[in-house]
Design a protein that fits this description.
Elements: H1 2-17, H2 22-33, H3 38-43, H4 53-90, H5 109-123, E1 127-128, E2 134-136, H6 137-140, E3 167-169, H7 175-183, E4 188-197, E5 209-219, H8 224-239, E6 245-252, E7 255-264, E8 281-290, H9 292-297, E9 306-313, H10 314-322, H11 335-338
Parallel strand pairs: 1-4
Antiparallel strand pairs: 2-3, 4-5, 5-9, 6-7, 7-8, 8-9
Helix pairs in contact: 1-4, 2-4, 5-10
Bound molecules: 3,4-dihydroxyphenylalanine.
């Protein structure tokens, strides 16, 4: 029995030396020291020993058990220390490594100019209104007094959504006027910026998607003079005090009288250049006094109220602001271009 015990002891010690994980260590503990372990099994046979042998073997068994317990405790501490230092190494933070560059986005030039325009209009007491890009033809055409025969209503000009021509991608921001007038009593003073769509080929000054800012003022006694004052103020704030404007007679079905407004060419100062096609002027917007039929159609009495309206080409306004000659640059998302603003 003595030999068996000693053999067990040295076997346990060498097994412990080769242990590689906490699970293996626990398995060894159970194997040698557990209730059903090998030392316990030997101790159970002590009854068959003589009275002299019993204390000697008992002492030896206790000694071997204590040795194994101690070795296990040592091994446990050692393994815990190892795993801590492994973690310290693998999770170490090198504060001297250069950081990753954070690139901050910036506003698109159209947004910059739109924000400026909003500031100017808000300063004059305007609110911002919004309307859908997928619009009912009733709002974009009929209620704006645009006749069924108008070329803008052709399938070659407009992106229809439904076969019956009742829904399309709006071709102007003017339907927002109608939406606002139907909901709101005068006095009304709103601008409404947004995207519009037309079946145009892409070139330096055309795109099937572009931006407009619609404007509408309805109140008692509003005249063409108010329109001119408002737009002149906008132009002088955007392009400088001395920038001249020109109001040219024009036709729009939803205004009477109607005009187009040009600004003095910002590239050549009005002398004539390539940008203004030698005319000295650049077209910026359409405008006019709201047609009485449009007011009445929206439930506003044209005998009591009058108004003016305008639709500015926001892309054009941006190009003039920064001297951008090709509209495509605004929509290509080329960072070499966009990073300049
Ligand atoms: N909607 C017109 C266009 O796209 C621009 C316009 C002209 C808007 C006169 C108006 C207006 O509100 O009164 O060409």
């Amino acid at each position: 029995m003595k030999e068996t015990l000693e053999k067990l002891g040295s076997e346990a010690q060498s097994a412990l030396a080769g242990v590689g994980s906490m699970q293996e260590l626990e398995a060894l503990r159970v194997k040698y020291l557990g209730k059903k372990g090998e030392i316990t099994a030997i101790l159970k046979q002590m009854g068959s020993l003589s009275a002299e042998e019993r204390p000697v073997i008992g002492q030896l068994a206790n000694q071997i058990r204590a040795d194994i317990e101690e070795a296990i405790a040592e091994k446990t501490t050692q393994m815990e220390e190892n795993s801590l230092s492994e973690r310290l190494i693998s999770e170490a933070l090198d504060v001297t490594i250069p950081g990753k560059e954070v690139t901050v986005g910036r506003k698109h030039p159209i947004t910059i100019v739109l924000d400026e325009a909003k500031e100017i209009f808000i300063g004059m007491g305007f609110d911002i209104a919004e309307g859908p890009e997928v619009e009912l033809s009733v709002y974009d055409f009929d209620k704006l007094n645009i006749p069924a025969t108008h070329p803008a209503r052709e399938w070659t000009d407009t992106f229809y959504i439904t076969e019956d021509e009742s829904v399309h991608l709006r071709c102007q921001t003017s339907p927002v006027q109608v939406r606002v007038m139907e909901k709101q009593e005068p006095p009304i003073r709103i601008i409404s910026p947004g995207r519009v769509y037309r079946k145009d080929e892409i070139d330096a000054s055309h795109s099937p998607m572009f931006h407009q800012i619609e404007g509408l003022v309805v109140d008692k006694g509003v005249t063409m003079g108010d329109l001119k004052g408002t737009l002149n103020l906008l132009v002088s704030k955007l392009y400088g005090e001395s920038t001249k404007t020109r109001f040219r007679p024009h036709h729009f079905p939803f205004t009477e009288p109607s005009c187009e407004v040009d600004v003095q060419c910002v590239v050549c100062g009005g002398n004539g250049c390539r940008t203004c096609k030698q005319s000295g002027w650049l077209e910026l917007l359409g405008a006019g006094v709201v047609h009485p039929k449009v007011l009445a159609g929206c439930g506003i009495d044209p005998g009591t109220y009058s108004g003016f309206a305008f639709g500015i080409g926001l892309d054009r306004m941006t190009m003039l602001r920064y001297g951008i000659e090709d509209m495509r640059l605004l929509f290509e998302n080329d960072l070499r271009f966009l990073n300049q603003f």
